[in-house]
Design brief:
Layout lengths: L1 H21 L3 H4 E17 L6 E7 L5 E7 L3 H6 L12 E9 L5 E9 L5 E3 L7
Parallel strand pairs: 3-5
Antiparallel strand pairs: 1-2, 1-4, 2-3, 4-5, 5-6
Length: about 130
């Protein structure tokens, strides 16, 4: 019985530490000195901890389309900021203000999202918009 309890506790500790190690600070991933304002159609929403991510297709000046990923706060912080699970749906056109990823990828940390259909402005649910 003690061995089984020790194994369960060990597995739980490993699982919890993996989540803590996977989390990162804003400054480690994103550059506040590289602001973005993009508009596009939502292609995917991942509503899960530790951060919600959504993706949208943005039409470039040359006519090509680039898919961008945007990190926001945790589900709980977004709920407190006025978001609902269905606030943003696939195909919705949104305007995003964000900080670009330091690695130059097509990822960013969203500060605010404006829903084109209603004009509603929702914030990222993270302190200071980060």
């Amino acid at each position: 019985m003690r061995t089984r309890l020790a194994i369960v506790m060990g597995v739980a500790a490993i699982a919890a530490s993996g989540q803590a190690l996977a989390h990162h600070s804003f400054a480690a991933e994103f550059d506040a000195q590289k602001p973005l304002k993009l508009t596009g159609a939502v292609t995917k929403v991942e509503w899960s901890n530790p951060h919600i991510w959504f993706f949208m297709d943005v039409k470039n000046e040359d006519g090509t389309v680039t898919n961008w990923g945007f990190e926001m706060g945790s589900p709980n912080s977004l709920l407190r900021s006025g978001w609902k699970r269905d606030s943003m749906k696939l195909g919705d056109v949104v305007a995003v203000e964000a900080s670009r990823a330091r690695d130059g990828s097509n990822n960013a940390n969203a500060h605010s999202v404006v829903l084109a259909s209603t004009g509603q402005r929702l914030f990222s649910g993270q302190p200071g918009g980060q």
